[in-house]
Amino acid sequence: MRLIVGIGNPGSRYKNNRHNVGFQFLDFFVQKKMLQFKASKFQFHITEGELLGQPFVLLKPDTYVNNSGLAVLDCINHFKIEVNDVLVVVDDINLAFSKIRIRKSGGDGGHNGLYSIIYHLESKDFSRLRIGIGDDFETGNLADYVLSDFNKDDFVKLETTFNQSIQLVDSFISDGYNKMLNTFSRLKNLNKLNNETE
Hints:
Helix content is 39%, strand content 22%. The protein has five helices and eight strands; from the N terminus they run βαβββαββαβααβ. It has helices at 21-33, 68-79, 112-121, 142-146, 152-189; strands at 2-6, 38-39, 44-51, 54-61, 86-92, 100-103, 127-132, 195-197. The protein is globular, with a radius of gyration of 15 Å.
């Protein structure tokens, strides 16, 4: 079973925040796949599905960004999911707005949500799909920036990013990171995706 985690803060107050692009992508994904999130007995909302015979779970933690790892740990323990079958979708201030970066493993990059997941899983060996939110803020204003909202034009541009990301997530679900990397490379070669990989 694959697990796709979106990082974000729960509640309408944060719905359109830059920090919530992981949640926003998962909401876009479930709409396209005609799925629906539901509350669980744990600290997260989930939906389950299957793609080409491969079951998957989509997860939105209710723990707020800084404690994302608590929800992820509960989920992988409940469903008996291996760490290398986890893909985390996360915002990235070090990436230009709407660009995509994928990684097979690595550190937290200064992101508290990733830090929490690494800490609670005691592992860095989960995949990441980072969506750029840019760094258009002055020194000392990071918190205000990531908690500010995207505007309508931003969401129009993100729709293209999200559609491309669906192809990547579908590949991850069907056959893991290497398949996602192949899809990533194919899209890049077709000049359809402005992206980076490490």
